[in-house]
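Q: What would this chain look like folded?
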Amino acid sequence: QVQLVESGGGSVQAGGSLTLSCIISGNTHLNYWMAWFRQAPGKLREGVAGVDSDGRTTYLDSVKGRFTISKDNAKNTLFLQMNNLKPEDTGMYLCAAQWANGPPSIDDRWYDYWGQGTQVTVSS
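A: My prediction, written as structure tokens:
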């Protein structure tokens, strides 16, 4: 069994910053993908950023240059540093994990393990 617990969400004004954290516990594997997804009301869930066990990353085009995904292997924690936030970044942010090889995907169909999410609200 695998558990993922997110934290760090909140309300900020446009241009502000937040850092999300996701602690993973349970039966983990050597090769994995971990990713952040978000879902706004009335919209489909979309992948924001992903990282694999080798440190390769991938990003949604609209967050490139503003968001940074990283991981602390010693603490089994995934991070998402979000700078220059925009109102369209508002949503529930969820972290996810999958045991896999190769460059990470941010297609949610590939992910089996999910956290409950943390809300991010950006006001204009």
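The chain has a mean pLDDT of 96.
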